[in-house]
UniProtKB/TrEMBL annotation:
Transmembrane spans: 24-54, 74-97, 118-151
Species whose genome carries this gene: Candidatus Desulfacyla euxinica
Pfam family, one: DUF2062
Keywords of the record: Membrane, Transmembrane, Transmembrane helix
Domain DUF2062 stretches: 5-158
Protein name: DUF2062 domain-containing protein
The keyword Membrane is annotated on this UniProt entry: yes
Length: 172
């Protein structure tokens, strides 16, 4: 399938999402929140769990996690650690941090990266999680309002199209 055709396909699927705009936007915000967390293999499960708990859309929660993708994993992990280390006042761990970042840059399996972070100890884990939590909150709150607006506009657009397209000839 051509790339442009694939983009059009996903665009159509996106605008056809059904549900209340609040639920759809809430799911997207949970997905983006967990997508910013450095918990690569568990992001989707956590986002869907949050959507279930808070009555958001599970589909958009899963979609929102793709804010984190192979193109930006390095930057998300880098900034989550640096921000978390700054907030927690952690200095050092440069060799371990460099090893983890090299693994991410080289595209190592996500479970290997998680094992390295966990093996580095509680301070390293805390720095990654605190930084990811801060980044997730900072990005997910505005994303909720942005996607609420988007999903409301899609609903209005969809309803305006319903009114124009129903002109069938009926027999009497």
């Amino acid at each position: 399938m051509k790339f442009s055709r694939q983009i059009k396909y996903y665009y159509i699927r996106f605008i056809r999402l059904r549900g209340d705009p609040h639920e759809l936007a809430l799911g997207m915000a949970f997905g983006i929140f967990t997508g910013m967390m450095p918990i690569m293999p568990f992001q989707m499960a956590l986002s869907v769990g949050l959507a279930l708990l808070f009555k958001g859309s599970k589909i958009t929660a899963a979609l929102g996690t793709w804010v984190s993708n192979p193109l930006n994993w390095y930057f998300l992990y880098y900034f989550s650690y640096k921000l978390g280390a700054f907030v927690l006042g952690i200095h050092g761990h440069n060799a371990i941090f460099s090893s983890i970042m090299t693994g991410i840059r080289l595209g190592e399996d996500s479970m290997i990266i998680v094992e390295r972070i966990l093996a580095a100890g509680g301070l390293m884990v805390s720095a990654f999680l605190v930084g990811g939590l801060i980044m997730g909150v900072a990005v997910s709150i505005p994303s909720y309002f942005i996607f609420l607006y988007v999903f409301k506009r899609i609903r209005v657009w969809r309803e305006s199209r319903k009114g124009r397209g129903n002109w069938r000839v009926t027999e009497h």
